[in-house]
Amino acid sequence: MISKMETHRAHRTRLRSRSALVGGGVAVAVGALLAPLAAAPAASAAPPAGEVRHPVDYVDPLIGSAGGGNTYPGANVPFGMIAWSPTSTAGDQTNTAAANGYSYHTTRTRGFSLTHVNGAGCHPGAAGDVPIMPFVGQVDTSPTADTKDQKYAAGFSHDQEKAEPGHYRVGLDSGAVADLAVSERAGVADFSFPRGAPAHLLFRTSNSLNGSENAHIEIDARRRKVTGWVLTGAFCGRRANGGENNRTTYYRLHFSASFDRAFSTVGTWENDRLAAGATTADGGEGYLTGADRAGRGSGGYVGFDTTRDTDVHMRLGISYVSLADAEANLRAEIAPRASVAEVAADGRAAWDRKLRAVRVSGGSEPRRTAFYTALYHALQQPNLISDTDGRYPGMDGTPHRLERGQKAQYSNFSGWDQYRAQVQLLALLQPRVAGDFAQSLLNFARQNGGVWDRWVHISGATHVMTGDPSAATLATFYAMGVRNFDAEGAFDSLYRQATVPHPDGLSDKGCPGQCEGQRPNLAQYLASGYAAQDVCHCWGGAAETLEDSVADDALARWARLLGRAEEAEELGARGGYWRNVFNPDATATAGSVQARNRDGSWVTPFDPASDRGFAQGSAATYTWMVPQDVQGLAEAMGGRETAAARLDGFFHKPDGSWSVRGGDPLRYDPTNEPGIHAPWLYNALGQPWKTQETVRQIVDTVYGTGPSGLPGNDDLGTMSAWYVFAALGIYPQAPGRAEALLTGPLFPRAVIAPAGWRRALTIAAPEASDSAFYVAGVRVNGKPHDTSWLDGSFLRGGGSLSFDLAGRPATGWATDPDRLPR
């Protein structure tokens, strides 16, 4: 008769053969157990155009885990609730080595946390809830008292680490091994320990990345279960620019973990007090850091006898509503005897189905790896927060159920970032998810007194960044054909937010980085036509004006599609308010966007390299942030030729060399969002060949493979979505629109065909190569196409797009002044 543990071992053996993981029994040293990971053969050469490998094979979750990308390598599935990944430590239990809990260059961990957010920039990020640590040794002091993570943490090396979509495995220097796989709301784990050594699992219930208000754990030895919750939130709560406003609680995560074998020991801790044999504990850490938080918190541990059996199998479910829902989620998603191998295979298949929405052919192996990993990162969010029974936590602090026709409630909306590229990719590839996401944001707004927050985490309004990105996002969804949400209700709500002042708009609470007003000092804005720097109650008056102009233009376009002519005219005029902060005499040689005071005076002294009046960017960068009216911007600068020459200086140093890697406030910054559309502005200026060479320069030098393969914070898939569009040769023209701008594709062929599409979108560029990226001609559905942009019907309806590429600029293509992008 085969024991349960032997069955688990057999499943793991099959998994190792699938993933090139080879190892012996758990009694051998961890180095011998996992050493073949380092010796795995290199990926084969690129397959022919027929495509013989699965897209998921190209994904490397470690891309972006260094260099400020803030990605995480752990197990997840598309849009899932659970994301099981390491929390690294650099010697401070109240902090972590990177903004999202994992830094490639910090190879020491204090546990494997159940929730993460991809690429968030606020250090230490968000979530990272309930780290679970396999610990080899005696638990004889409180783990919370180990404030420097000297005892209850362990190192590892990357040759003992394997990260792939839906699955994460690592061998620790202590001899323990963690093998993790997940479904949408649940997961399974195999933990292995050295034979005969003290073996424990620590549940650090209070140790979320940002701390916690409270936490609770219960250990039921008879039923071999550990359950509990953490009450937390505080996204961006430690930032200096208004973060104190966000040191608040807004969600509770429940978990239920069950085991296949009995506990040999149990215990809990509260602050510095260890209670061996105890089965319950409570206590949070607070939301500060360092000495103000060190030594606070609670958790519990369970131990296992490893004299004969060194493996522990755990099944776990989570919920933001209740413990009962966490257990129901687990029952619904993972079979009682499912192994890590089986769950990992399901997760891999789920990812492959989503990634198959875009099939590329040709190109080099590194190009494919960068592309499919970018697509993987772009499709990690939004994230489920509704349970299998349809309940979810509302922004009003009470549980709610899905609306009629809604399939899921989603959250984690980094609006200021995502509205520029990620939401367009979501609408293109996953329109059903986009619609449910739109409905989710409307649900939250209705629960939040009609206020649409610009950065939503779980069920919390965090107010992070500036502008009104919800308006731009939902208008974009509608323009791209997404219809499965209450579009009229959403428009009415967003229109009200854009036209009726709210008391929060006069508050400076949280400013500048997390101002509560979503349309700050709206009455003044409407009266003046710009956000006045001295009374705007916002991050920066010039930035706020540009952001609101983009949002209002998007709302105007949506209003036209809805047949709302009066609102369209009103909002369309407001889409041009950017002109009110463009000072034609900002410097002795050129005009620029510049902040203004309420009395109409310009904020001085003015320096185009300064961020005064702006948010995370300089005047030099923000001056280009008028994607809705590039022709108007060019006119304000003195004409298209003058504007193009200025744009040349934005991407090049005075000596003519490229300046696209960031670090110069007068030039392009690929690490942050306000200027990421700028390479495509040449299309509207009548010089599309410069878009082609600029985009390719950025693709070749700023993005890549390896841990530092992203230019900066992935910002919930935004930077990755930028790369996906650049690789395909298309880019969203402006928020609230479905038109696309063109550049030379990376791959000879790409087929965009999400599940349910009636007609694929095929992109052919047979000559595509590292040297042939200039567009000499384009055909749409077989007919010559002489503009550098596509009508929105193409992305909505599909068709064929063919490029003729060359190694030299084709300076006559798509330059007719009457047919430039508007």
From TrEMBL:
Coiled-coil region list: none
Protein name: Alpha-1,2-mannosidase
Chain spans, region Disordered: 589-608
UniProt cross-references to InterPro entries, sorted A to Z: 6-hairpin_glycosidase_sf, GH-type_carb-bd, GH92_a_mannosidase_put, GH92_N, Glyco_hydro_92, PNGase, TAT_signal
Domain Glycosyl hydrolase family: 326-805
SUPFAM superfamilies: Six-hairpin glycosidases
Residue ranges of every copy of the Glycosyl hydrolase family 92 N-terminal domain listed in the record: 58-319
Family annotation (Pfam families): Glyco_hydro_92, Glyco_hydro_92N
Signal sequence region: none
